[in-house]
Structures are given as structure tokens and as C-alpha cells.
């Protein structure tokens, strides 16, 4: 193990599909015990990163360590220590819930049947029900329950709550949080629901254009960003020491979302705290065209 | 499973710019001030909170650590987290901090509205003298 405190570590990790990069120059460290959110538009590389971490895809370049090990170099027991779940739920439609549980028990040495049954009872899902008779939301909950019963140290979840109604989603997230409370599992989940991120995630990673544009503790992210607004008066300059992430102008005023190093004490600007959602959206809108141009140049060179 | 009534029920506003742990800390302080919580009360366990609302357990731990740091709550090994007997004085200390902050914000607001420094100082002096006059 390089670092016992990180569950996932990547250095300049990249995945190239035929002509395009699915993920590029991705360097990040997710500390143990976190519930980390992976946010970004479709095609930004979220699923690619999760699949590589789960050992389902090979990286093209860079280093990837999951629980201190490389996921694709035949580390047999990593499969038991990592739980992966995507939209294609691994359920046999003709099975009853109880049969799915027994199937899981047979195939997983660390299976915790008590936890699984407790979760299902909490969700009011009868063990006798056939999978095919359950609603989409219930199927998602069963799939997650099966994943949690493996008691993985790291859970990789690709949009676990997508397409669920609000109640089913809430139930699913609570089961997930209970597991985190009981077992100290770490979680990396991709999502489009920024409200969920603020509620359950204490680490946030924003991917845009196949790159990491933000990666840090949510608390730190909240503390280190502000919205500044002011009326135009000729030479209006942002205060020194701040990095402008996004700016919006109106007829007479200007509003900036900025990253700060130190508390700002400004008389010209009105200073407010942005919500996590506003911060994430600002980063998603950046897209940093400059960086992209530079990169496409690199691509030409590296495609030999 | 039978569940006792929790001493306090938290809520989380994900659209607020206030860090989630801070929201919980503020709710406990508010509950203490309003009498919903009293000294000796046990705060809901992390597991209970996680069952009650959709929240990261780390956030609850963080909030309870902060409450302990403020002297409002204390962890008792194997039992849980309880409101301390000296919570009200601890609360006053933090209340002082927030009053100072509000005061400062109001002064800035007044300044931005064009109120002069002399006028503000005058107001402060007057308030102090007037107040002292009333007390003695």
C-alpha cells in the first residue's frame, strides 16, 4: 500500500477510446472514509473512471491504485473488497428476492445476510417477491442491497439514484448512509443531482471535458468560494488574490464566483456565500477553453 | 424495531451555503435557547440521525465534535453525546461572537449607506452612556 489513508489514487490517469479520450490527465486522491461525489456532464469521463477503478476497463496511460492496489493486475481479493454498481443492475428477473440473496451468499465470502435482510425490511421489500414484479425503484434498492451485503471497503456507484422517484431515491440514499455509519465503507458515486451531493457527500470531484476541474472536501470547497457583486464603475477589478471562476454581467452590475485564499474584506464588492450547487455549476461552465486547446495540441503529438 | 422519540430532529438545507455540519450545530444551539433541548439531554446517535434524515454520518460526527469543542455537548464513552451542565455559559460565549459579527455587519451596512464614521461613533457613545445612565 502506498498510502493507507487513500481508497483511490490516480496520477495522470487516462483512457483513450479509438479517437477520443474518455478521461484525461486525471490526478486525484480520495481519502478513506469519505463519501465522494463525481459530478460532470454526460461524457465527461465519470463512468470511465468508475469502470477503471472497478477493474472493468484498462487504463491507457497513468497510474491507478484502488485500496493501494492496481485493479487490473489480477489482485483477486480486490473484487471482494470493492463493490461496483451501474445502471445495468445485476439481477435475475425470474428470481425471488430471497433467491438473489442466497445467490449472493454463495458467490461472496464476506456476505452479510443480516445486513441485507435488515435493509430490505427497512425498505419494505418482501423476500418472496419476484424481481420482475418489483418497481424500478425497488429493483435499484435490491441491487444496492446486494452490493452492500458484500461489505465492501469501497463502493463505486454509477448514478445509483438516477431515474428513481424522490421517495425511492431518499430511501436508497439513507440505506447507503446507514451502511457508511455502520461499516466505515468509503463511497465514490457519480450523480447529476447536485442537491444529493450537498446532503450526503463530504468530498466532491468535478469532471469537465474529460478533466478534473475541482477535487476537494465539500467543507473546504464551501469555505473557499464566494460570490462578489458590484455596480460597474469604469475600472472595476476583482480584489487581488482571488481567482475568478465564473462571471455574469447585468446592465449595471457584475457578479463573480471566485475562489479565495484568505478571507476577503472588500468595500467595493458585496460578498456572499455561494451554495455548493452554484460552485459546482460555475466549474462546469468554465470548460477552460485555453486548457482544452493546449491539450488537443498534446493529443496530436502523443498519437504517434 | 421500537424507536424512542429523539430529543431533537434535524433538518438539512442542501441549498444553503452553510456547511451541513454547521447547520446541525446551529440547530442544537437554537434548540437549547428555545428550551427544546435541556442540559443532560442525550443527542440522537449518529445511526439514528442517518435513519431519520438523508445525511452523511461523517457530518453528524463532525457536528458533535464541534459541539463538544464549544463546550455545549460531551461524549460519554459507550453511552452517547449529551448536553453539558455548563451549556448555557458555553452558549453565551458563542452568542457573543455572533453578536459581534452582526454588529460589525450592521456598521458596514450603515457605512455603505453613507453614514459617517463620526455619526456611528456618536451613536455608539450615546448608546453606552445612555445605557449606563439607566443602570446606575
Short description:
The complex is a heterodimer of chains A (304) and B (136). Chain A has 304 residues and is an alpha/beta fold. Helix content of chain A is 34%, strand content 28%.
User: Can you tell me the CATH class of the largest domain in chain A?
Assistant: Alpha Beta
Unreliable sequence segments of chain A: 288-304
Identify the CATH class of the largest domain in chain B.
Answer: Mainly Alpha
Say how many strands of chain B there are: 2
Terminal Cα span of chain B: 61 Å
What CATH calls the topology of the largest domain in chain A is Rossmann fold
User: How confident overall, as mean pLDDT of chain A?
Assistant: 85
| Assembly category | heterodimer
Number of domains of chain A: 2
The most extensive interface, with participating residues per chain, is: A-B, 31 and 21 residues
Helix content estimate of chain A: 25-40%
Specify the CATH homologous superfamily of the largest domain in chain A. Answer: P-loop containing nucleotide triphosphate hydrolases
Structural class of chain B: mainly alpha
Instruction: Enumerate how many helices of chain A there are, as a single number.
Output: 10
Taken together, the total number of domains of chain B comes to 2
Strand order of the largest sheet of chain B: 1-2
Amino acid at each position: 500500500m502506498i498510502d493507507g489513508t487513500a481508497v483511490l489514487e490516480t496520477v495522470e490517469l487516462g483512457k483513450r477510446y479509438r479517437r477520443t479520450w474518455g478521461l484525461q490527465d486525471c490526478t486525484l486522491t480520495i481519502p478513506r472514509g469519505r463519501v465522494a461525489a463525481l459530478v460532470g456532464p454526460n461524457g465527461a469521463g465519470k463512468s470511465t473512471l468508475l469502470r477503471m477503478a472497478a477493474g472493468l476497463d484498462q487504463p491507457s496511460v497513468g497510474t491507478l491504485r484502488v485500496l493501494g492496489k492496481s485493479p487490473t493486475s489480477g489482485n483477486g481479493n480486490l473484487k471482494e473488497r470493492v463493490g461496483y454498481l451501474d445502471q445495468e443492475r445485476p439481477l435475475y428477473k425470474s428470481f425471488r428476492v430471497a433467491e438473489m440473496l442466497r445467490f449472493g451468499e454463495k458467490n461472496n465470502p464476506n456476505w452479510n445476510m443480516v445486513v441485507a435482510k435488515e435493509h430490505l425490511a427497512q425498505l419494505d421489500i418482501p423476500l418472496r417477491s419476484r424481481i420482475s414484479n418489483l418497481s424500478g425503484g425497488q429493483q435499484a434498492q435490491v441491487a444496492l442491497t446486494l452490493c452492500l451485503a458484500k461489505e465492501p471497503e469501497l463502493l463505486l456507484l454509477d448514478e445509483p439514484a438516477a431515474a428513481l422517484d424522490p421517495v425511492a431515491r431518499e430511501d436508497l440514499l439513507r440505506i447507503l448512509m446507514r451502511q457508511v455509519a455502520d461499516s466505515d465503507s468509503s463511497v465514490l458515486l457519480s450523480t447529476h443531482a447536485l442537491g444529493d451531493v450537498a446532503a450526503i457527500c463530504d468530498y466532491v470531484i468535478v469532471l469537465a471535458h474529460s478533466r478534473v476541474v475541482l477535487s476537494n472536501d465539500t467543507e473546504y470547497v464551501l469555505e473557499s468560494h464566494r460570490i462578489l457583486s458590484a455596480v460597474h464603475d469604469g475600472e472595476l477589478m476583482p480584489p487581488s488574490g482571488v481567482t475568478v471562476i465564473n462571471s455574469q454581467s447585468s446592465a449595471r452590475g457584475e457578479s463573480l464566483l471566485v475562489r479565495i485564499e484568505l478571507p476577503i474584506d472588500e468595500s467595493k464588492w458585496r460578498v456572499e456565500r455561494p451554495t455548493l450547487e452554484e460552485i459546482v455549476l460555475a466549474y462546469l461552465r468554465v470548460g477552460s477553453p485555453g486548457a482544452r486547446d493546449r491539450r488537443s495540441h498534446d493529443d496530436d503529438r502523443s498519437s504517434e | 424495531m421500537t424507536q424512542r422519540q429523539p430529543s431533537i430532529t434535524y433538518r438539512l438545507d442542501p441549498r444553503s451555503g452553510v456547511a451541513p455540519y454547521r447547520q446541525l450545530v446551529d440547530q442544537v444551539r437554537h434548540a437549547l435557547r428555545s428550551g427544546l433541548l435541556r442540559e443532560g439531554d442525550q443527542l440522537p446517535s449518529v445511526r439514528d440521525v442517518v435513519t431519520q434524515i438523508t445525511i452523511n454520518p461523517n457530518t453528524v460526527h463532525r457536528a458533535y465534535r464541534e459541539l463538544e469543542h464549544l463546550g455545549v455537548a460531551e461524549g460519554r464513552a459507550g453511552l452517547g453525546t449529551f448536553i453539558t451542565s455548563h451549556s448555557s455559559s458555553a452558549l453565551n460565549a458563542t452568542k457573543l461572537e455572533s453578536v459581534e459579527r452582526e454588529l460589525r455587519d450592521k456598521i458596514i451596512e450603515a457605512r455603505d449607506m453613507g453614514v459617517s464614521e463620526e455619526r456611528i461613533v456618536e451613536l455608539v457613545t450615546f448608546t453606552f452612556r445612555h445605557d449606563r445612565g439607566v443602570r446606575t
